[in-house]
Structures are given as structure tokens and as C-alpha cells.
């Protein structure tokens, strides 16, 4: 039989309902098991079989999934997960993913309803950040791609001939703080500019870009015959969550005629918080903006977003005229502009549905309250650290990230403590470096995380520290 539909639809309905029920069971009780557990070698080996010649039954594959995959996930749905910046997802987003897969829409272009859903999501994103409704945007894998699109749009706005002629020896340079995410120098690399073309601006004691140094560096590069074309501010740095002075950076960029890009991978969602929105003043002036719905907005992976103030410049950087992708006035090939005109992908999944349903169900106010709650948990954790002997805050807590050091231990030992904590299943923070010192980093992004979970994490870490210090004393 050449077709791939089931011979018996009733059977697949039954197992589908069982799958759905078990997913809901796991989500309802997600905080009751370990955050993470190491995957045993037997389970890894079981996932190394060759390509099946005749295939397996769906029941068999589902059992393998339950046994080999479910117990050994990343852990980011668990309220004890505080590592990196991972959203936790919601039941609504999970259902939306299922619905989107059922439609199997290609959102690269053409005239159909999923395209209109993504257009509405982009309008919502423009409204949320204060950018003009005349702007453009698209959903992408994540902020790495969104920042790359921002760099491409900025460089082509500087000189559109790059699209045909290449970069040549134009001497284009951009600017970002030393604390900017690593995807920005990588974007310069992938764009053909070279990572060294991204000038790293020093930061002040509060980990925000030194705007005076930025202006000085731009002037010096111009005098050296280089061509400054963009500056990237950050709304929520990857290490400690600091927010650059976007208004001041924007003023410098405007005065120098530079494109203002903002990497707001998780910080953009603070625009929905009445309490924290003022800290992002100036984000509305961005020429391009990168952020993720799959972080603080709790949309299932993946769902990044790029916004561009000038839709004509955005399209000029990516659109192509191809005989096999002609745009018509009517029929399925109508509906221009298409989303493939705003980024490198022609084949694009229906990412918008899970964003549309998540924001549509919870609403801006509730999402803003969730942001506030995460920041409250982070603030409580910071206050407890300040009162605990042998622990020290290593950076101000601007939003939802708490970085702290452990006195009496070398960096290697701090790293080992965090690994021990992961393997205990109690909690999963991560690490970073603050002013050269290894820090334990707790990012409160999960909407399920409360002070109960941060206290449990800290209690376990202190116990592990005390055991290690006692062992050192006994030697």
C-alpha cells in the first residue's frame, strides 16, 4: 500500500487520546519528580538502531518514547529548572502545536489563513514593544536567527549593493557591549562581516554598556577610515539580566546615523509589566528587534521573533524575484508580501498558532503579572543570599536572574557542586562568569517556579557546600 494513512482510523484515535491524556497527566504533576536525571547508557544504546526496513507499530514506538525519551528530558517544564533561560510551556501551547501539525501549513508564503495568523502575531509584537504598526517582522527559530536577520537588514540598509557584489572592502563595523550574547559576533561571522567587525564596548559596574565609550569608539573608527553602520543594545543580558540604557544608545546611534538593533531575547516580555516597562525605555526606537516567545512568554519551542521598523528596508534585504515563486493578484499565489520576503527561509512551519493561542488565551495583563511574579521570586532569592553566610551576590538583580558566588571554594569546586545538584534531581541552575569569577546563575523564567523551589535549590546547594568544606577540613 503506497498511501500512509492508517488502515483503521479508530485505532489511531484511541492511541492518540491515550497520548494526549498522558501528556496532560505529566504536565499536571510535572513538579513531583526530579528536575533532570542522567540518561543511562542502555537507553542511549537503545536509540542507536539502524533505519527500520519495515517500520514499527505506533504502539511500539510510543512505548519506546515513554521508556527512552520522557524520563530523560531537559527538565525545563519542571519548576525546579532555573538554568540558562528556558520557557516552561503551557497546556495551551501544547494543544496549539498539535493543531498546527494537523494543518501542516507552509508559511513561507501564498494566500491562506495561517499567514494571517502570523501577521496578527507580528502586529501584537509591534504593539507590545511600542514599535510602529507599519513595521514588519517574522517568526523564526530563535533569537540567534532573529539577531542574524537584524545584522543582515542593517548592513543592506547601509549599502544594498552588498546583496549582489558582496562585502568587498567596505570596512563595515558595528558595536555591542562586552556582555552581549555570543550570537551577535556569530551573526557578524555568518553575515560575512567577520566577528572582529563587531566592536565590543566596555560596560560599567552595573554591567550596562558604557554609552560614552560607545560614542568615542564610533568617532575613532570613522577617523580610521572604517564605516560604522549599527549598534546593538541588550534588554536583559545573558549573564545577569542587565538592561542597557536603550534611550541613550539610541540617541548616540541617531546622532551618528547608525542602525539601532536591540537583542531582547527574554527581556522584551518585560514590556508587558507595568512595573518593569520603564526600564526598557527606548526599545520602541529600535530599527530592528530580536526576542523569543519561547522564553518568558512560555510558548513551546521554537518561537523566535524579529521586528524591523522599516518594512521596505526589511524586504529589500531578503526578497527575491523568482519565476517559480511568482506573486499573483488572486488565487493561492496571491497575498504578497510573503514571509519568505523577510528572512532566509522559504519553508516555514506554522509557528504562529502557538503564539497566537498562548497570548490570546492568557492576555497581555496576565503575562505581565507572570513576569512580575518571576522577578519577585528572583528578588526573594537575592535577599536570602545576602543574609546567608558564605554566599555573595555577584551582580545586581535587574529582572529575573540571580548570580551568586560561594566563598571558600575554587571555581572548579563550584562547577562540581552545580553538577551534583543537577544529578540530585532537586534543582537545575547553571553557571556563568561575573568579573572573571564563576557564579551560580538562577534564571527564574518558569511560570511554575515559586520561592518554595528557590529555597529548595539553595538549601540543597548549601548542604552540598557544607559537606565539601567539612571533607576538606577532615583531610
TrEMBL record:
Keyword Lyase found: yes
Listed PANTHER family: GROUP II PYRIDOXAL-5-PHOSPHATE DECARBOXYLASE, MIP05841P
Pfam families: Pyridoxal_deC
GO biological process: amino acid metabolic process; carboxylic acid metabolic process
Gene Ontology molecular functions: carboxy-lyase activity; pyridoxal phosphate binding
Cofactor: pyridoxal 5'-phosphate
Keywords: Decarboxylase, Lyase, Pyridoxal phosphate
Domain of life of the source: Bacteria
Matches recorded under SUPFAM superfamilies: PLP-dependent transferases
Gene3D superfamilies (UniProt xref): Aspartate Aminotransferase, domain 1, dopa decarboxylase, N-terminal domain, Type I PLP-dependent aspartate aminotransferase-like (Major domain)
Homology family: Belongs to the group II decarboxylase family.
InterPro entries: Aromatic_deC, PyrdxlP-dep_de-COase, PyrdxlP-dep_Trfase, PyrdxlP-dep_Trfase_major, PyrdxlP-dep_Trfase_small
Protein name (record): Cytochrome d ubiquinol oxidase subunit I
Modified sites of kind N6-(pyridoxal phosphate)lysine: 295
Amino acid at each position: 500500500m503506497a498511501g500512509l494513512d492508517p488502515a483503521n482510523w479508530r485505532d489511531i484515535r484511541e492511541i492518540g487520546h491515550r497520548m494526549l491524556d498522558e501528556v496532560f497527566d505529566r504536565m499536571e504533576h510535572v513538579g513531583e519528580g526530579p528536575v533532570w536525571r542522567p540518561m543511562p547508557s542502555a537507553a542511549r544504546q537503545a536509540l542507536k538502531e539502524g533505519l527500520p526496513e519495515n517500520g514499527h507499530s505506533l504502539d511500539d514506538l510510543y512505548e519506546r518514547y515513554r521508556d527512552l525519551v520522557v524520563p530523560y528530558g531537559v527538565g525545563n517544564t519542571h519548576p525546579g529548572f532555573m538554568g540558562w533561560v528556558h520557557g516552561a510551556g503551557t497546556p495551551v501551547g501544547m494543544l496549539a502545536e498539535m493543531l498546527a501539525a494537523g494543518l501542516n501549513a507552509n508559511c513561507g508564503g501564498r494566500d491562506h489563513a495561517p499567514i494571517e495568523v502570523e501577521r496578527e502575531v507580528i502586529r501584537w509584537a509591534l504593539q507590545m514593544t511600542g514599535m510602529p504598526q507599519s513595521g514588519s517582522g517574522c517568526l523564526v527559530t530563535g533569537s540567534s536567527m532573529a539577531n542574524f536577520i537584524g545584522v543582515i537588514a542593517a548592513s543592506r540598509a547601509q549599502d544594498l549593493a552588498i546583496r549582489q557584489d558582496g562585502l568587498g572592502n567596505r570596512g563595515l563595523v558595528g558595536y555591542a557591549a562586552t556582555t552581549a550574547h555570543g550570537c551577535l559576533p556569530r551573526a557578524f561571522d555568518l553575515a560575512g562581516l567577520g566577528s572582529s567587525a563587531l566592536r565590543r564596548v566596555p560596560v560599567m559596574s552595573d554591567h550596562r554598556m558604557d554609552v560614552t565609550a560607545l560614542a568615542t569608539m564610533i568617532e575613532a573608527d570613522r577617523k580610521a577610515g572604517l564605516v560604522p553602520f549599527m549598534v546593538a543594545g541588550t534588554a536583559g543580558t545573558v549573564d545577569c539580566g542587565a538592561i542597557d540604557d536603550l534611550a541613550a544608545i539610541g540617541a548616540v546611534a541617531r546622532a551618528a546615523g547608525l542602525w539601532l538593533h536591540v537583542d531582547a531575547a527574554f527581556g522584551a516580555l518585560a514590556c508587558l509589566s507595568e512595573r518593569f516597562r520603564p526600564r526598557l525605555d527606548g526599545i520602541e526606537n529600535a530599527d530592528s528587534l530580536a526576542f523569543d516567545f519561547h522564553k518568558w512568554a512560555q510558548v513551546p519551542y521554537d518561537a523566535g521573533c524579529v521586528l524591523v521598523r522599516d518594512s521596505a528596508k526589511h524586504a529589500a534585504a531578503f526578497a527575491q524575484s523568482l519565476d517559480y515563486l511568482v506573486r499573483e493578484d488572486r488565487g493561492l499565489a496571491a497575498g504578497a508580501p510573503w514571509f519568505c520576503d523577510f528572512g532566509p527561509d522559504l519553508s516555514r512551519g506554522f509557528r504562529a498558532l502557538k503564539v497566537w493561542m498562548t497570548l490570546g488565551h492568557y492576555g497581555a495583563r496576565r503575562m505581565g503579572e507572570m513576569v512580575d511574579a518571576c522577578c519577585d521570586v528572583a528578588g526573594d532569592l537575592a535577599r536570602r543570599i545576602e543574609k546567608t553566610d558564605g554566599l555573595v551576590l555577584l551582580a545586581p538583580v535587574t529582572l529575573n536572574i540571580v548570580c551568586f558566588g560561594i566563598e571558600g571554594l575554587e571555581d572548579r569546586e563550584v562547577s562540581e557542586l552545580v553538577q551534583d545538584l543537577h544529578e540530585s534531581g532537586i534543582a537545575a541552575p547553571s553557571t556563568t562568569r561575573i568579573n572573571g569569577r564563576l557564579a551560580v546563575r538562577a534564571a527564574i523564567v518558569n511560570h511554575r517556579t515559586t520561592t518554595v523551589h528557590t529555597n529548595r535549590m539553595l538549601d540543597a546547594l548549601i548542604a552540598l557546600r557544607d559537606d565539601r568544606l567539612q571533607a576538606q577540613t577532615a583531610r
